[in-house]
Structure formats: C-alpha cells, structure tokens
Model the fold of this input.
Amino acid sequence: MNIEEYISSGILELYALGELSGAEKAEVERLCETHNEIKQELELIESTMGALANHLAITPPTHLQDKIKGQLALKNHETKVLKMPVEKQSFNFAIAASVSIAVLASVLAFYFYSQWQSAEDQLAVMITQNQEVADNYQFVNQRLRNLETDVEILGNPNFARVAMNGTENSPESLATVYWNSSTRDVYLKIQNLQALSQDQQYQLWAIVDGVPVDMGVFDSGSDLLKMKSVASAAAFAVTIEPLGGSKDPSLETMQVVGTTEV
Amino acid sequence: MQIPESELVRLLVSKDEKGFENLYTNYSAALYGVVSRVVVDQDIADEVLQDAFLKIYDKIHSYDVAKGKLFTWMLNLTRNLAIDKLRSKEMSQRRKSDQVGNAVYKLDRESTPSTEDGIGVRELLDQLDENQKQVMDLVYFGGFTQAEAAEELNLPLGTVKTRVRSALIYFRKTLDVR
Done:
C-alpha cells in the first residue's frame, strides 16, 4: 500500500476525532504497529488537536470546580456514612442513622434521576440512529433486489443474448438485448451509447418479417431495462428519435444493430 | 504544574485528590472550550462539563494508552457528551436556530486569552479558508459524521476527509506543533 496516500486521505484525522467505524479503526491501529510514519503522523495530529483545544480554551465559571469535586467526593462520603461507628449512645445513633438514611436516599434519588435523564437522552439519540440505519437498509435492500432480478435474467439460459454493435454512425457504441422468445420478455443493457440532447431519446426496434416494430424509448443508464414484448424478431436496432419516440424509425440515425440468427 | 499523562492516569484511577486538582487545572478550560462551542448555551455547557468529569472518572479504566493520548481520549469523550446533548430532545428546538446557514461559526467564538502565545482566535482562523472552517464546524463542533457532513455540504466523502486534514495541517503549522 502507498503510505503517503493513506496519510493524505485524512483517515488518521478522523481516527483521532473518534469518527471511524470498527473496521477502519482496527486498520489504523494495525498499520500504526507496522508503519512508523503512520504512528508519528497520528501523534502529530493528536498533538495538533490538543494544541487547538488549548488554544480555543475557555475558563469555566469558578464555582464549577468545587461543584464537580463535590460530586466526585460524594461517592466517598456515602461509604463513610455507612461505616459510621456504632459505639455512640442509642439516641444519637438513631438520629445519626435516620439522617444518614435520609442523606443516602436523597443521594440515590438524585443519582437515579440523573441516570434516568441521561438514559432518556440516549434513547432519543438511539431512535434517530435506528431510523437512519433502517432507511439505509431499505435503500440497499431495494437496490439488491433489483440487482438480483438482473442477475437472474442475465444467467437464465432461456434468454437469448443479442449483441448489438455500433453502426457507421457510431462504431464505438454497444448494447445488448436479452430476449426470451417463449415468454416474449425483452430486456436491454446499455454498454456504451453517446449522451443525447434533452429533446432526444433512444428507441429500440425489433425487425419482425422485415418491418420495424417499436419496442419502447429509453434514456441512457446502467440498469437492465425492461422493454416491450415480442414473440419473434430477426434483428434488434436502436435509433435516435425526438423525445417520446417515433412511429417509424429514422434509419439514418441508427446507433447499434444486431441480428438474432446464430 | 503539568504532570506526565501516565502519572495523571494513575492518580485518576486511584481517585487521589491530587489527580482531580491536576486534571481540573490543566484540562478543564480546554474541555470547556470544546463544550461551549458545541452546545453554546452556558448553563448546558456547565452541566456537560460536570458530566464529562464524572464520566472521565467512571471510564478511566477503559482508557488504553496504546490507542492514543489521554488528552485526545478526554477531548473525544467530552465532545461526544456535548454532541449527545446537542442532539437530545431538549436541545432540538435550540438547534434549529443554530444551523449551518448561520453566519457565525462555532469555531469563531472568542476564547479565554492564552497566556502562552499572542495568537488570538481571530488571527488563528484568519488564514483558514471558508471551506475548511465549514467542515471543521460540522465535524468537530456540530456532531456530524463524515457522511452527514458530506451530504450537508453536498461534497464527496473524500473531499470532507481531505478538508479536515488540510485544516489540521494549517493549525499544526500556525500553532507550531512538532
């Protein structure tokens, strides 16, 4: 692999920002072990992020320090309360015990309340993320289903493959018809056709008993296109027609043609 | 006084008070700078900074020195808390009025004047071009994933990555990081 390219892709910056997915993250960590340049670059990036954070620093309000410290110390305080010595007078002990219990209960109430709050927040985030994933999944699934149909047609032996080669008009052009003469289904796959202006469309024709029959219009694209059905055809051809197609083909614009006879 | 990160980690794990003092003195302003730029509202920023300290203590056991610096780990942990807050329900209203179209970048907010060098935030950002600033704002302070930023800015994913990189290279040079 090219280390320079890997570094300049920006992937290490995203690693340092904690933005990478599991697989990419593991790759960075693995490469750091084997490539010193990558490790050094990552260290520089981290130092830069540190320097930037220091540079953009804002001093928090002064009361926050004690407040935060109090919250951290609070946890130690709880355990101290529980370990209170027992050798006091029973009355004092009762007061101390009820105070401790009250304090402990408040602490726990506050603790659970904040836990609940953050759980609520996290849930909202999760729901959004879940929706996102579901949408992506839908999209990918739809795409996969289309591709599965395509593969099925391409691999089906009942479909005859008719290669249409470029004519003198456009020798580079290439398209293929997949034709099932028993079900009469016709599909078209474009390998290479030139781009058209907005008021033009391609039109597929089947030559049946020497007469061209309209098989439908289409625009350029990479997907397998379903065209009109035909039971028998001697050849297929594609012409350029005005938007919406023509009744009769403009033969002088023919782009590709291919015969069905072997 | 700044102590080595490894020593600080040890103090944090053992819940030593010196650890907290050191952590707060050396890192609270940097963390608060990030939080304030993400959530903007001061009361919420205060709350997030508290949560960040609690979480640092809570998670310090899971910090792995082999995977990066403590400072980076703390920055990301804090930034993620701030971003979660930003995305949470109570903030969603606020966020609508704080979208990308807003002329004021989060990055641009003034920081506490640094005593170490004379470069102010404005000077620092002057040379950064709008494109880089936009990407940094979304990815660093806006909580956008790289893919979301690409979509928001209508850019290929690779361009977002390289812009983050070029922005950080600019900071590296300007802040003289070696």
